[in-house]
TrEMBL record:
This is Ribonuclease Y. The gene is rny. Its EC number is 3.1.-.-. GO terms for biological process: mRNA catabolic process. InterPro entries: HD/PDEase_dom (IPR003607), HD_domain (IPR006674), HDIG_dom (IPR006675), KH_dom (IPR004087), KH_dom_type_1 (IPR004088), KH_dom_type_1_sf (IPR036612), Ribonuclease_Y (IPR017705), RNase_Y_N (IPR022711). NCBIfam families: HDIG, RNase_Y. It is a single-pass membrane protein. Residues 394-487 form the HD domain.
Amino acid sequence: MTALDWVLVVAIVVLAAFVVAGLLLGSRALKQIQSGRDERRGQAEDDANARVEVAKARIEDANAKAASVRAEAAAAKAEAAAARAEARRVLESAHEEADTILEHAHRQAESDAEQLRTAARRSGERETALINATAKEQAAEVERRAARIDERERLHAEEVERLVERERRLATVDGELASRESALAGREAEMAAAEESRRKELERVAGLTAETARLELIDSIEGQAKREAALLVRDIENDARSTADTRARHIVVDAIQRIASEQTAESVVSVLHLPSDEMKGRIIGREGRNIRAFESTTGVNLIIDDTPEAVLLSCFDPVRREVGRLTLEKLVLDGRIHPHRIEEVFESAKNEVDRLCDRAAEEALVDVGITNVHPEIAKKLGRLRYRTSYGQNVLKHLVETAHIAGIMAAELRLDVATVKRSAFLHDIGKALTHEVEGSHALIGADMARKYGESDDVVHAIEAHHNEVPPQTVEAVLTQAADACSGGRPGARRESLEAYVKRLERIEEIAGGKSGVDKVFAMQAGREIRVMVRPDDIDDIGAAVLARDVAKQIEEELTYPGQIRVTVVRESRVTELAR
């Protein structure tokens, strides 16, 4: 049943319920009328009539409602019939459209199947042709392999024949060798007997035993061998020196000539010029409170003497001394000098020096062309701006060393970037010397290893002072560039006492050798002339003496660059004409 049918059924049921209710009410009213007929007949009749009228009115209303419901049901049935007709029409049109689509699909499927059959036929023909061609090629390859196998079998047969012939010849040679060995054994026995008789005759004639003669012969041969070895060593050394020195000199000179760097000598004292001598009193303060506050805050000793319009700042820490100098300079320019103001200006100067250190590190890295440096390493490099080594600024020394090493690496066709990085970072440990115990080379290598530098760079740093034996060419070039930068004239200064002691020790080493007459240290200790007595030392002995003196100097002394040892042997003959 459809929804409309269900609506009609419900409406009929409701109408029937109304009719039944009306009938029940009417029957109840009639019963009430009959029960009160004796007492109030007239009144009951009126009430009954009224009730009957009411019931009739209700019945009429119910009939009217039932009629309206039947009319609505009829309309609903008509609409349902129309809907069924429309549904049949739509269904018939859908069936027709489905038949059309199925027919079109059948025709399309037949067309696609025909195309697939055609494509499959063509693909099969191509594969068949390819298989036939492959089969032909394989057959030809089999024929070629069979021909090669036949050729190998023929060569193998010929080789077997040659081996058989060789075996026959070897058997013949073995027989001949056996006969020769027997003959040689007889001859050796005869020679041994003859040698024994000759030895006995020689001992009788010379009056020496064989052992004594052998020792004398060994002594003579040993002396001759030493002399020949010295001559050979001298020739080899001269040849190696003539080639290696020329090449090394060319590389080093080219590197040094292409470097034009500034050199400044710094000390532990900084000088600050004052606008007038009256400022000294303000710096000292009442009862010296300002100068005491300044020294306790900055850690720098302030020296105020009779020098006009100048004060001295003394501190072994160059960074701290620079912070103190900037603090005092700002206080003098401001004019307000008291303990609280000193602390404020000190913090400002400290931040400014940190910025200057960072800027100096960045400029040095840009100058050398190095990137990807850890920020902590860059920060430590900036502190080297205010550090010196023998009067040479360490940061400038690193830049100079990196340029020299890069030029050498380019001449030798090596990795320029790695060599320059190794040379630039080789003294990074000097920024930590007062913080970490140990050699600056080793602690610098540990720091580089900690912040991700490569193994070649770390090894070059730890080996540049031979705490670790150098194992790579980068380490050797770092040592060479360091020596070139520190050993060039004017690069470093040393105390007069150390300089004199080094010269005296050089002369003592050379003067302690046998046969030495005079010793002269020249060119600030970079060359030593050794005068020998010609009667005591010959030319070969002079070469041996020069090598021994140079080796002893290398082992006992520490010096920048190199020292040339020159041995002079001179023979003079004098006669008088009377």
